[in-house]
Amino acid sequence: MDTQEQKMLKNLSPTKMFLPILVGLGVLFYMIWSDDSINLDLIIESLGNMNLFWVFLSFVVLFGRDIGYMYRIRTLTNNKLDWNASFFVIMLWEFASAITPSVVGGTSVAVFIMNREKIPFGKSLSFVMLTAILDNMFFVVASLLVIALFPGSIFPSNDYSTDLLGFTLGLPQIFAVSVSLIAFYTAFMAWGLFIGPKSFKKFLWFLTSFSFTKRWRRMAVKSGNEMVVASKELKGHTSSYWVKVILSTVFIWSARYAMLNCLINAFLQIDIFNLTTQDILDQFLIFGRQIIMWIVMLISPTPGSAGTAEYFFGEFFREFFKDGGIVLVVALFWRLFTYYTYLLIGAIVLPRWIQKRF
Known about the structure:
Blueprint: H1 3-11, H2 18-34, H3 40-48, H4 52-76, H5 83-98, H6 107-116, H7 121-149, E1 161-164, E2 167-170, H8 171-195, H9 197-207, H10 217-233, H11 239-268, H12 277-297, H13 308-317, H14 324-357
Antiparallel strand pairs: 1-2
């Protein structure tokens, strides 16, 4: 095992899962402890009255999302990965993303994992870059679409604000900053991957030609070379290939968001066979707010958005519940299903994968 492989495996260490768990649960329990308006009896009553059908459906949707992930990675590799290998790749990729800051993600680890699954480095790199671009494009397009559909209600009607570099920012301003950064980064990466990889490399070289940026020259050259390699690997695919990966991307993220709809419905005791017009509108609003919240969470500096996700969940969805304590309990279930579960699965799967591939 060479030094680079040892470094990657160190980045996948299960011990790194304890920090985000402590941060996330710490923020959540602090919010519960500091809110004097929380009604404990109402929380216990809500837990006892949960609609188990919606809880079961949330698991089904979550399972469907994971199948969608595996289908997409198989499609990207032209089925070079079988379903078993795809499971290891996706679960370890999720684990890597959960223990690294959202602004960093687990992309480098994902390339390493796919490479160990006998996908050549250039192809692995191109697939990981492509998934990042597709996911970010979905965030940007979907968020702008829901803002157009719900211009007056997509942001919660609270007075949340924070000071950043002397500016007071509310949720709309934080969203605008985040989505602008994501859109710029995605356009820049798409240009380098699909249009001008060599120009991309020259541009990075130019950026590191100044005295105060030369310290990043080695990294820039490496990134430029990787972009040229990745661009070559993506040429020659049929239109059906692109349709499949785009549609699977839409399905993956729609399933992720629909899972929370199901979970919230379990606590609101929504009758699926007797939906009112207001219930249907609320479902679209909940779905849309998740897209906006996800954009805000993407600039979180904490591993897996730990703490940030729990806090903003309360800000975005508090108005749907009778008591502030219930929304925090729902936030705990939400993170348990979509975050802590993958930390646990990753910690279980990782030793088996290492034994298998090393």
